[in-house]
Design brief:
The complex is a heterodimer of chains A (872) and B (197).
Chain A (H helix, E strand, L loop, with lengths): L7 E2 L15 E9 L2 E8 L10 E9 L2 E10 L8 E5 L10 E9 L2 E2 L3 E5 L10 E3 L3 E4 L3 E7 L6 E6 L7 E5 L4 E7 L9 E7 L3 E9 L5 E6 L5 E7 L13 E4 L2 E2 L7 E5 L6 E10 L2 E10 L10 E6 L6 E6 L9 E9 L4 E9 L3 E4 L7 E10 L13 E4 L10 E5 L4 E5 L4 H4 L3 E10 L5 E6 L4 E4 L7 E9 L2 E2 L3 E5 L11 E7 L2 E5 L11 E7 L7 E5 L5 E5 L8 E8 L6 E9 L13 E6 L2 E6 L11 E10 L5 E5 L6 E4 L6 E10 L2 E11 L3 H29 L1 H8 L11 H8 L14 H5 L10 H8 L9 H10 L17 H4 L15 H7 L9 H6 L18
Parallel strand pairs in A: 11-17, 40-46
Antiparallel strand pairs in A: 1-9, 2-3, 3-6, 4-5, 4-7, 7-8, 7-9, 10-12, 12-15, 13-16, 14-15, 16-17, 18-19, 19-22, 20-21, 20-23, 23-24, 25-26, 26-29, 27-28, 27-30, 30-31, 32-33, 33-36, 34-35, 34-37, 37-38, 37-39, 40-41, 41-44, 42-43, 42-45, 45-46, 47-48, 48-51, 49-50, 49-52, 52-53
Helix pairs in contact in A: 4-9
Chain B lengths: L1 H9 L1 H33 L24 H30 L5 H26 L21 H46 L1
The chains are: A mainly beta (872), B mainly alpha (197).
Chain lengths: 872, 197
Amino acid sequence: MIAWLLLVSLSRSSAQDAGVFPCGPRNVTVSASDQLILLTWEDDPSCTSRRHTLTYELEVLIADQPAHHEEVAVSPDQMGSPHSWSWSPHLALECAPFTLKLRSRSHGRTSPWQLERIGPGHAHSLSPEVYPRDKVFRVGTQATFCCVLPTGQALITLNVSGDSSSNWVRRKIGNRTHSLTVDLVKGSVESGANVICETQTEHNGACAYIGYPPADHDLTCETRDFQSVECLWTVGRNTHLALKSPTTYRLLGSTCAKGSAGRCSHKVRVDFEERDWILTAQNQLGTVNLTDRADLMRRVHMFAPQEVKVSSVNARSVRLEWNWAIQMYDELNVRCQLKISDNQTSAVRECLGVALRFAVLDDLIPNWPYEVTMRCGTAQHFWKWSEWSSSVEFLTMGDVPDALDVWMQGNDSQTIITWKVLPANQSHGNIIDYEVTWEATSERRNKSRVLHPKRSLALSLDATREHVVSVTARNKYGNSSPSTITIPVLNRGSGRVKSSKTQGSHGGFNLSWSAASPMASCGYIVDWCPSRGPCTIDWLRVPPSQTNVCIFSKNFREGVRYMLSIYGCTRGAPVLLERREGYVKEKIIPDGLFRTLNWKQRDMDVEVSWDPVALQEQSAFIQGYILYYGQNNSSVMNISTDDPRDTSLTARNLQINSYTFTVKANTTVGQCGATSITVTLNSLTDNLIKAVGITIATIFVLLCLIVILCYRNWECIKLKVCPPIPMPVLKDKWMTSLTKKSCRPVFVEMSHHTEAELMAIPELHCKSEAPALDCSYRANGCFGEPVENLSARCAAAPCLLPLLPPPPTPPPPLSSSLPKDGRLNPSYNLSSTDSLVEGSHGYQPQKQKGQLEEASDTPLPCVFTYIPLPSE
Amino acid sequence: MADRRSGAAGAPDQGRTTAARAAAIAELLLLEISNLLELYSKRETFTADVIAGDSRLVSVPPPSSQLDTPDKLWRLHAALIQCRGLMERAIAKEDEEMGSGTGEYETLRKMVKERLSFLINMTGELVKAVDGPAMMMPSLNDSVEPDSLTLFELKLWVFRVFTEVDYWAKTAVTILQALPKERVRTTRHRSTRSSRR
């Protein structure tokens, strides 16, 4: 409120002045209120006679600067009545003096200006003053603030706190007045933005509330009790004016107490007619009118059923009852939804009827906790559901267990009958035990009882016959219906099914198998176990129409190979259809996969071999192997095989050097399981030397063995090779003299005589030279030298001495019989020289004279003939 | 008087416990008013220099090193009572001009006011325990009347009130934390004086 208004009439021209347009404004008044300037005036009486439109020109000067110009046309019929003009300046009236100029104009003639001035009337304060104060602005507009400084002070800053907008202009519009024009681009906080003016000594400011007009929309009206209308709408964006100018709401002209929540109700008489329901939202920046045209009898939003309770609780059904909050609901055709929840699932059932106050819930699980809540709406002209009622909890009565899911697992000697433990929603009470019965065709029935929680029984069945096994579960309410499985003849058909690989995905297996088998009349059973190691079989039943299944199990482990078997469910024994092997997720095989890595050099090739990899150690499918090899600090080469059954790889054309061989398994998750060995290759020369050395050593050993054998069997050999020569039995002087005379050496050649020759009566074929002739001639001097000398001579002049047959006497000791040169018959008994000498006495030359004569000049060979004699 | 003295001297442990509790409450008050001040400064983008000069809203005798513990306690107690009055007026005026909300700011405001009341009770007990000066109802500095302020001036005044409470919360922490030692000394001094008499 502006408490001051200064009207100063500066000048007034007289309309009577000569040459001046007389039809000018008279009784001009100016007023200002709430930042609005209102100017009123009247026409000069001289104007009433005019028949043309008169134009009034208005001009506004702010601080003596033109700020606004406007023209107001007055038609002849408006002449004589008072006129007014209002204007809201962009600058607060307190900021600067406003001068309003008014004159009339007609046909190029104008009246003199009449000036009215509005001046700021604030006294000289000690602190700066900021204007306008506490004004509401709309986002997106431009605002101008001014700061009037105390006398003698200078402006330091003038700004809008927290406003980061760069679109602002600050001007000096008077000696003590500065203005700030700002683009308002965003809403202020609810307590308003602060426009702060700072001088050297003082701070002061004003609040500015920057926001939006209401923007509420989507009005919808309905009735809940047939006695009032309740309207709902979507509250628009934040106006930022919740404190300064909160939005007020009026429904059908009545104020809404909680309109800011988007809800308002009003007591009305609800009847069957369509009408407009009007809501008005308003704040200082604007007003919004929302209209919804509706027949409230088709807009019934029921209250939730009350006092919902359960009666007649059975094993598989209960009765639910409730009341209505509004009596009139009994006259409606009502549709209700009942939400039945347990710990795991939730289902909704519907019921319908007039005066509906109860419902029966069936198909419930025995011995099972439930929670029920409900909501309702009109069945005819359904508008919307009521809120959910308060929930009711109940527990159904117990019952006999459901039938078990039975399966089998065969091994070499036994068949394990196993079944799944019934979950609580199937056991309908605590399970006490299980009864297993089995029988072959036309045999007596066997029975065994298994206490809970054990869930399998191993049976030793005749593998050549089918057996029918039934299992029932028992709780305190009775026995379940039996579950039967036919045990097939052991291994029938299972050997013919080959397994194929499958790949796991997302922690399980997506299995699909060939088109539906005609044998699988009651569906399929898929069971699975680790391919190796201990196994507790798990299985899944699949309906006949389905030939694929996703298998997930908390027991699945990555890197373990599983065997999955797909059986067809028949009226008799299940039939194995397919088998798969796979990993839920293949894992890198750790290094050191190959326990034993052997190598073998062949020329310049090296074959690296390993033992077959055990299945337990394969955490991924092995697709082949790769052998990396290389010398130290040199490039690595590799060779590979794509056959996972291979157990060796050969690196070829290597050099004599040290190599590192690394074998890796190739899997879908990469090369892994690396195992390395380092070997040094040997040269071929080394091998040759080694072979020769080995050969020599072998020969040497053999020779040694022969020598040893010969030594040990020398007597036998000697008997075989050199039988003992019998001693001559003739003992006469000839023989004696022979020993005393020198004689040509006699060589006894044995090697050229066969055994028969040796056994023949020997003849002496001595091809002695002349001295020998002398010897024979001079019998006394023929054998006069020692045998040794004789032997030496025999070497120079060989003699052929056929040996006599061996005497029956044993040979002399070997040590004394070996001649030094070894060329003599070793069996010859030199120690018996005397005997020889004695034997020579009996010698009878057969051709004494003639032969002697022929050898008189040249040496003649002497042939001695021995007559064997039995030894003494 | 003699009875009160003997009572105070006869229960030094209880006095120390009260002082310690008062110091702890003063620390809590300081934490909360600091948070409130920070929240307000951020919302209004005010800095400390918007408060002109160093004129104080709380009117108590100036601090002096000559003041003994009872006088310090009394001075603190009187200042805190004025602070509570200021807070109450600030809250009422803000709610009147800007509406009452239920946000974090309003919650903090209420907490500070209640904590102040609790601390005033504690300091009142301490003043009694040390035979402080006779209780006089402290009066607020009425130089600024919030009823005549514009909204911006009201905001500035509220900011000054929070700053004043922050100042006296710091002062309270300082005085109350130093109190146990001084109190013992004072008690001994007075005992000595009594024995001389």
